[in-house]
Write a structure and sequence with these properties.
The protein is an alpha/beta fold. Strands 1, 2, 3, 4, 5 and 6 form a 6-stranded mixed sheet that branches. The radius of gyration is 18 Å and the shape is globular. The longest helix has 23 residues. It contains 4 helices and 6 strands. About 8% of the residues have low confidence. Strand 5 and strand 6 form a beta hairpin.
Length: 171
């Protein structure tokens, strides 16, 4: 009987410790073209970055939701709607990942291209205090001997790691 009680207590402690370190995060990816007058459909590259970040944050133990990817004129209204959604859902953090594209090479339909990304602006806002935890611009680097898709995956994981590090440091 005492073994069962110890197992229950340890299970409760494990879940409690995990929930203390987990954060509830709402995220939106914004797609910015070099020429703001051109509104392209959502790029496959933007979708892959979003997927990799969401998966990595979830695998790190965070509770993660996301808004639809926005671009062009819908960007500002999409960011505002996402922030309101994060507040209404009692999220801890709101993450905005803005992908700036070079405009030099447009993704072929269904193709992923790290080379087409000029930089990514990362903004992390703590919902409770409305404070900006992190605002940084990150430039991707294509590594030798990696495909463009592998590069996008690696870069997405780097962004997710940065998000996790900033959120953990701000707790």
């Amino acid at each position: 009987m005492w073994k069962r009680n110890i197992a229950v207590v340890l299970s409760v402690l494990f879940v409690s410790v995990q929930s203390i370190s987990a954060a509830a995060i709402n995220m939106i990816v914004c797609q910015e073209e070099a020429d703001a007058s051109i509104v392209l459909p959502v790029r496959k590259t933007s979708q892959q970055i979003e997927t990799v970040i969401l998966d990595a944050l979830f695998d790190s133990g965070h509770i993660v939701t996301n808004e639809n990817i926005v671009n062009g004129e819908t960007r500002e209204s999409g960011i505002r709607a996402g922030l309101l959604s994060a507040r209404d859902s009692y999220m801890d953090f709101y993450v905005v990942v803005t992908t700036h594209y070079t405009g030099e090479s447009v993704d072929a339909p269904g193709k992923v291209s790290l080379e087409s990304i000029k930089d990514v602006e990362l903004t992390i806002r703590r919902i409770r205090t409305d404070a900006i935890v992190c605002q940084e611009t990150i430039v991707p680097v294509q590594k030798a001997k990696e495909t463009s898709s592998q590069g996008v995956d690696r870069f997405g994981k780097e962004l997710a790691y940065k998000i996790c590090r900033e959120i953990t440091a701000s707790k």
